[in-house]
Amino acid sequence: MIRRILYDLAGADPALRFSPFCWRTRLALAHKGLDVETVPWRFTEKDAIAFSGQGRVPVLVDGGRAVHDSLAIALYLEESYPDRPSLFGGPGGIAATRFVNAFADTVVQPAIGRMIVSHIPDLLAAADRAYFVASREARYGKPLAAVTADREATRVAFRASLEPLRVVLGAQRFLGGAAPLYADHILFGGFQWARCASPFELLADDDPVHGWRERMLDAYDGLGRKAVRA
Amino acid sequence: MIRRILYDLAGADPALRFSPFCWRTRLALAHKGLDVETVPWRFTEKDAIAFSGQGRVPVLVDGGRAVHDSLAIALYLEESYPDRPSLFGGPGGIAATRFVNAFADTVVQPAIGRMIVSHIPDLLAAADRAYFVASREARYGKPLAAVTADREATRVAFRASLEPLRVVLGAQRFLGGAAPLYADHILFGGFQWARCASPFELLADDDPVHGWRERMLDAYDGLGRKAVRA
Questions:
Q1: Nearest one of A8, A41, A42 to A25, comparing CA atoms
Q2: How confident is the model at residue B106 (pLDDT cuts 50, 70, 90)?
Q3: Which end of chain B has fewer CB atoms < 10 Å from its terminal CB, N or C?
Q4: pTM (2 decimals)?
C-alpha cells in the first residue's frame, strides 16, 4: 500500500491542527476518500519539508511525489484520482473555483486573521512562538494584541463581506451545489482555523453562513467537528 | 426560423444599451452563437414585458418561451442548447459561478452604481427620468449627485475589492480559463454598464483587470467595444 503523508501545521499540542490551508487539503482528501497520515509540523521545522522546495504547509507526499500549496494539491488530486468524486465538477468548476480561492485568500482569511491572530502564540511550541510573533507583527506593522483590539468592528465588516456566500446559500446548500465541492473546503478552512484557534465567535446564530458551517462540520463523518480545539 | 427576442434596456437614444444584466445576457447569447433581435425597452414600459410575470429586463423570448433574470436565462440557454459552447463548463462550474454572480451583484455593481448613477438620468427618455430618479433616490436615501460626490473614494475601495479577480487573472486570461465563460460575462456586464453610461474611468491602465476588460471588449467579434456610449 502506498503511504500518503500530509505535513500539517500543529500547536504545542500535536493534536491541535489549525492551519486554514491544511484544513482545505484534509477535506479534499476526505472528499476523494483517500486515507492520509498527518504529520504534525511546526513553523520552524523548515528542514522537515525542505524536500518540497519551499517552507510552508500543506505539503502532501503521495507515493513518493511531493506537492505543496493547497490549490495545487487539490488540482493534483483531481488529476491523479479522476475516478474518485470530483472536487471541482468539471473544467468550468476549476476555473470558477479559482475565484472562490482568491476571495478566501484576499477577503475572508485576512479578516479572520485580524480577529484571532493574538490568540495563536499561546497555542504554539516555544520555538514557534517567537517566530510567529516576529513574522506576524512585521506583516501587520503592530503588536498582535493591537491587531485584534478592533475585532468587534472587524466582525461587522467581515459579516458584510460574506454577502456573496449568503446569496449562494439562499439557492443551494453548499457552494458546490447539493453537496460540498472544493469551493466549500476552501472557505470552510478559514472558519475551521478560527474554530480551532480562538473562542471568538465569527457568525451570528441566524446567519445562513452559520448553518452552512454546521453542515460542513458534519460532512465527511464529522471530520471538522471532531477536530481538537484550543 | 424561430424568432428570438431580447428586451434590452435603452436610453432616450434607442441604440444606447447600458443595463449590466442585459449585457450579461447579450454576451451569453453570443457565446452560444445564437442570433437575437434586441428590442429597446424603457424602465416605464412595464406593460411590454408583463407577459413575463414581472417588470425587469433582461427578458428573453425564445421560440415562444419567456425567461427573465440574467442568471436564469444563462441556465436556460445552457440546458436548451447543450451542443453549443458551454457557458459554465460543467455542473461544478454552474455551482461556483453562482458565487461570482453573487459577488458581482453585491460587491462590484453596487460600487459601480455609486460612481456613475448620477450620469444616468441625462441618458433617459423623459418618462423614464422621473421614475429612475425617484426610485434610485429612495434606494440610496439621498440625491444622486450626493451618491457620486464621493466617487474618488469609492473608486479606491472598488479597486481594492477587485483583488480576487486580479489574483485569478494572474493565473489565467479569463475567469473561465483560457477563454471566457459566463463568469466573465457576469463581471464584464458591470464594467460595460459604466462604459456605456459614464465617462468616469473605473480602472488604472496598468491594472490586470483593465487588460481583461480589453480582452472582453474584443471578444465575440468586438460586441462590447462596438456598443454605443453616452
A1: A8
A2: very high
A3: N
A4: 0.97
Q: Which residue has the cell 520555538?
A: A127
Predicted confidence (pLDDT) per residue in B35-64, tens digit: 999 999 999 999 999 999 999 999 999 988
CATH superfamily label, A4-80: Glutaredoxin (3.40.30.10)
The total number of residues shown for chain B amounts to 230
Cβ distance B92 to A86 less than 8 Å, yes or no, reads yes
Q: Specify the domain boundaries for CATH 3.40.30.10 within chain A.
A: 4-80
On chain A, the residues whose CB falls within 8 A of the CB of B171 are 98
ipTM for the predicted complex comes to: 0.96
How many CA atoms lie within 13 Å of A201's alpha carbon, on the beta-carbon side?
A: 7
Mean of pLDDT values over B107-132: 97
Torsion A169-A170-A176-A177 (CA) sign? positive
Question: Residue A91's closest chain B neighbor by CA?
Answer: B89
- Could you tell me where in chain A the CATH 1.20.1050.10 domains are found? 91-221
Over residues A48-64, the mean pLDDT reads: 96
Is it the case that residue A29 has pLDDT exceeding 80? yes
Distances (CA, A) of A43 to A11, A135, A147: 9, 11, 21
Minimal Cα distance from A176: which residue of B? Answer: B95
Kindly state the average pLDDT of the residues A155-183: 97
Cβ within 8 Å, pair B95-A163? no
Mean of the per-residue pLDDT values for chain A? 97
What architecture does CATH give domain A91-221? Answer: Up-down Bundle (1.20)
C-alpha–C-alpha distance, residues B120 and B228, integer Å: 14
Give the pLDDT of residue B64. 85
Q: Which residues from A are below 8 Å from B163, CB to CB?
A: 102, 106-107
> What is the phi/psi pair of residue B186, to 5°?
-60, -55
**Nearest C-alpha of chain A: how many angstroms from B208?**
15
Q: Quick one: which of B163, B189, B185, B161 has its CA closest to B175?
A: B185
Give the closest-approach CA distance of A40 to chain B in angstroms: 30
Q: Which of B103, B107, B175 has the CB atom closest to A95's CB atom?
A: B175
| pLDDT for B53 | 97
Cβ distance of A89 and B103 shorter than 8 Å: no
